[in-house]
Design goal:
This protein has 150 residues and is an all-alpha fold. The chain is built from 5 helices and no strands. It starts with a helix and ends with a helix. Bound molecules: heme C (HEC). The site of heme C has 22 residues, from helix 1, helix 3 and helix 4.
């Protein structure tokens, strides 16, 4: 009888451990899309600000440039630390991805400061540098549309 109860408690313990692991797996599954959603929303914001600055530059109307750049910085801060859907693979990519995020922040901070000083020529140049960083990162880390539908 005693043996049975020992056995029973072992089985119960194993079951509890198994449940706990199931829960943990579920939690990880929930977290991953949340991260992807956060990055996506931040990118949408970055994209919107970037468009607005681009249009302003074409029209040579610089009144909102600093404000737009600072707004973009808020979205950049939101994106920092969030990896692309599917993640980055290994230390090498992690390092590169983070450096690209940092480079974008540096370029946009510079553009905002230059716009504040009304040095719009310099600000335009910083924006060009920034958009090269967008392109570099997207070429390597942004999934194709069809990948996102999977
Ligand atoms: C460090 C990498 C990185 C940098 C730098 C970067 N992006 Fe992205 N961007 C991504 C990834 C990854 C995605 C795909 C994530 C998603 O939309 O779910 C993305 C998606 C986007 C999207 C698509 C959002 C949508 O609605 O589908 C836009 C727009 C965008 N980025 C604009 C920009 C602009 C503009 C810049 C530069 C000012 C920039 N990004 C810089 C990584 C980056």
């Amino acid at each position: 009888m005693r043996r049975i109860s020992v056995l029973l408690s072992v089985v119960l313990t194993l079951a509890v451990v198994a449940w706990a692991q199931e829960d943990k797996k579920k939690e990880e599954k929930i977290k991953e899309p949340e991260k992807v959603k956060t990055l996506h929303e931040a990118m949408e914001g970055i994209g919107k600000q970037s468009e607005s600055i681009g249009t302003a530059i074409r029209k040579k109307s610089y009144d909102n440039m600093e404000k737009d750049a600072r707004k973009m910085l808020k979205y950049i801060d939101k994106a920092i630390g969030f990896e692309p859907p599917g993640g980055v693979k290994g230390d090498e990519q992690t390092k590169e991805y983070r450096e690209l995020q940092k480079k974008l922040k540096v370029a946009i901070t510079k553009a905002a400061d230059e716009a504040k000083d009304k040095d719009f020529k310099a600000a335009r140049k910083s924006m060009r540098t920034a958009s090269k960083v967008c392109g570099t990162c997207h070429n390597k880390y942004r999934p194709e549309e069809e990948d996102l539908d999977k």
